[in-house]
Each structure stands twice: as structure tokens, then as C-alpha cells.
Amino acid sequence: MIRKTLLPLCVALMSLAGAAGCGVLGGSDDPAAQAAREPAGSSSAGAAGARPRYDVTPLLHPRKEYFGVALNGAPSSVEPVDAFAKTVGKKPNLVGSYSSWGDGFNAKGAQNVFGDGALLYVSWEPYKPGLDKIADGSQDAYIKKYAASVRETNVPVAISFGHEMNGHWYPWGTKDTTPETFVKAWRHVHDVFQDVGATNVIWVWSPNVVNPVPSVKLKPYWPGDAYVDWVGIVGYWTATGAHTFDTLYGPTRRQVSEFTDKPVLISETSSEPGERRRADVRALLGGVEADDDVIGFLWFNIPKRADWRIQSSPLALAEFKRLIADDAFGFEVPRS
Question: What is the pTM of this model?
């Protein structure tokens, strides 16, 4: 993967060019941070008095893993994030949130997260009026307003539109829509953002793990490489389900690899309380660190039908703290 396998090549090329070196993402002399301040195709100052557009490109293939969390109260406040950081011993650099179709963009939350050195991750859930209405353009006024707010905030934002589309449990899933309509809606939303100039978005296509829905193939739901930056995989560790990194995520990864090589984020996960929880934590973090194609994970730390909070299991928490302390996890998102 670019993050690890190309690093020696990067160093060698920059040495030949007389450059200072590749740096560490987020460092003061890091090319990624410089690129974030000076987006491709724009001058360093931009228009007179204008703030340069934030360029998300350096965030797409980080050298270290994203360490994410979803918490009640965040991102409108960073206090829950700071409290979680104290609990596990490291500050997350990816903060999950949920936005229903029709809600405004949480600009203040995005600024809070970015000011805290992290990236906001939005799961945008199109409950109503349906993907067909989104695809046909009748929702464009709302999309343009949302996109304009994202653009004007001018901080990096990851957006997952219609996550778990291969499941039957959401209205944008297999019971109420078709893959063709999903793809048309996704591309339309993406294109409106581009037209508005909201280029500070990382687009995350996030199916559920295929294990519970093996007959639903993922390729028909793929919008295309030009419309997606990351593949996000939603998959939870349950008491009776898959209990290794490969058995939980492998079948999905293998399907996805047939049509794209985009970076993979475990975009929503946690472990059900029980005897296996400590082992699940070890398998998750160990798998993420070992797999060059996986760029991190986002832990769902909210009680919902089960107590998914890591602090609810002392032994699992201790294992989480031990493993997340590794330098491979976490980095500060560069300021623009």
C-alpha cells in the first residue's frame, strides 16, 4: 500500500531532488501539511484576502492509522472526546456523527473537531423522501445548501452517504430501492457538491459486512472510482458471530478488491460485551495495524441495544489502552 510500501521510494526520490524528506503526516515540515495549506491548482494566497481551499488529498493515504470514535454529545462538544481520550490514553483523530436527510450541516461541530486535531466523519442517512427523489434532482436545493455550508466551513469532512446499502434494515437498502437508483443518487449528490465547490470532502462508500446478506453482491452498488475516496466497512464483533479479523471483514474485502483498490476504513465497529470482548479488541486493532490496505477504524462507543462502550468491560478496556498506545495509531490532522 502507498502508506508503507512506497515510503522508501518517496525518501529516495526526494533525496535525489534535494528535498527535505517525506516527513510525518501532521508535522510542521511535512509535505502533507504544506499541501493542505496550498491546495493543488491554487496559489498560496488565492484570491486577495481569500482563505485557500483545504485540500483533503494528503489525508487519503495516511502513513499512520486513523483512530476514530462515535460518542453521544460529539461533535457539538469536544468534551466527550476529551473524556474518552483520558479513558483510553490517546486522543482520537476521527470523530463519528450521524445526520438525517433534511438536517443542516453541523458546521460548528466540524470546526470543533478540526480545532481538536481531528477529522469529522458524517454518516448521512437519507431516510426521506427516498433515493429516487434525490437522484432526480428534486432535492437539489437542500443538497446545495448543505454543500455550501461544508464549503464555507473549509475544514476536511468525511461523508458516508447511505451506509449499509446492501442490507435490508434501512429504507435506502435492498427492500426499498435498487442498486441502480443508489448509484444514481450517490453520483448526483457528489456532482452537486463538486458544482458548488465543496471539494473539502472525503467520500466514503460504506457497505455492511456481507456475512449476514451473502446473496447481495456489492459491485452493482459501486458508484465508481471517480466518486469514492475510501471504502468504509461496517462490521461489529458479536458474541455469536465471526471472531477473527479475516472471518469478519475478509469476505467483504475480497468482493471489494474485485472492482476497486481504494483505501479501506473500518467505518463503524465495536464489540458486544461478553467473554470474547478482550479477544475481539485484540483481533480488531491487530488486524488494522497489520493490514496495509486498512487505514484505521471508528469505534461506536454509544449504548444502543447493547452497551458498546469500551469502558463497560474493564479487561477489554485494558487491552484497548495497551494496543491503542502503539505509535501506529493516531496523528494530528494538518491545519489549513
Answer: 0.86
